[in-house]
Amino acid sequence: MLNEIKRRNLPKTIPDSLTKDNWSAYRREMIVLFEKEEYGVTPEKPESICWEVKKQHDSVGGKAVHNLVNLSFDTPKGEFTFPFDTVIPNSDQPVPMFVYISFHPYGAGQYLPIEEIIDSGYALAIVNYNDVTKDTEDNFESGIANMYPRRNDGADWGKIGMWAFAASRMMDYIQTLDEIDKDRIYVAGHSRLGKTAVWCGVQDERFAGVVSNDSGCSGAAVTRGKKGEHVVHITKNFPFWFCKNYQKYIENEENMPFDQHQLLALVAPRLLCVGSATEDEWADPESELMGAYLAGEAYEMLGLKGLSGDIEVPVEPGEKRFGGKVGYQLRNGTHFLSRHDWLGYMEFFNGQ
Ligand code: GTR
Fold first, then answer.
1. Atom of ligand 1 nearest to the CA of 190
2. Is the N or the C terminus of the chain less surrounded, counting Cβ atoms within 10 Å?
3. pLDDT tens digits, residue range 33-89?
4. 5-24, pLDDT tens digit by residue?
């Protein structure tokens, strides 16, 4: 692995001069870089939010309370509202929560074993990403995309930034819930929404941890030398996920002034768990592992343990390399967010 890292000629994870004292200034600088060059500039947090809560009938057989929340806030073009669901297990104690950025409306799709997560003592806040803005090339006219003027300087936010921003607005609301343990709120997503979870967790330090499931290119995988998807493919198929400036790196990745391990490092000192699947060649498990491993350097600089275990010992299919503040798990199979993955993420957070 270490030879492989050298061969790829990756930028240093963190500068040699970095110390605990200048960590937060460095984080801010790097976030600006990732805004300008990859995901686009996130607007200011709205001054206030308001919400309407409707209790739903379904509540996981009486084990939890399921609410539908309509959250509103002011934008330059008026009020914007989006819906999301919360499912909170009955408990005497505040419980941890996943903010799950979802491909599907509540109760649909295969990626979310709600009952199992509730039985494990975790609450969920679930947003259907298409309710924030559509995952299509729509000239930024749907949902929240239409509510902020475009800057036209190459650094306009893309849809990953918009979905991430919505998860932070959910966090604004969650801060008001007594049932939730504010020190254990984690943002989670799969694939394009794994990229979103990472970008959200990097920017919003209220999240105590990030789950990146199979996030691949422009997510947890280092880009230089990876297999499968590259900037050339992702910006051709999904230009609207990113800012325009990212297109400068098409067939020019060697000149990116950053790589994805440096993004993951910005989650430090909080928790980071990266999951891959053995047959997910488009995302490239090895490059995701490399991202997680290298991000550990920031944790070590801060006096914490990064990815635990000897990185020269290959990660076996089915293995969970937990034990540090950065975790990595490799599932057998294809691109998917499975029950097995969720159980691993909860094991990682429970072990902290
Ligand atoms: C693919 C895309 C990947 C990944 C995936 C998904 O087509 O190339 O980067 O994000 O979609 O989100 O399912």
1. 12
2. C
3. 999 999 999 999 999 999 999 998 878 999 999 999 999 999 999 999 999 999 999
4. 989 999 999 999 999 999 99
- Preceding omega of 317 cis (within 30 degrees of 0): no
- The predicted model scores a pTM of 0.98
d(CA 223, ligand 1 centre) in Å: 15
Helix 159-174 to helix 192-203 angle, to the nearest 10 degrees?
60
Q: How far apart are CA 193 and CA 201, in angstroms?
A: 12
Query: Tell me: the pLDDT tens digits for 157-186?
Result: 999 999 999 999 999 999 999 999 999 999
To test the pocket of ligand 1, the residue of 191, 227, 337 to mutate (highest count of ligand atoms within 8 Å of its CB) is 191
- Which residues neighbour 141 within 8 Å (Cβ) at sequence distance 6 or greater? none
3-state secondary structure of 87: strand
Q: Is residue 313 classed exposed, middle or buried when 0-12, 13-18 and 19+ CB atoms within 10 A define those classes?
A: exposed
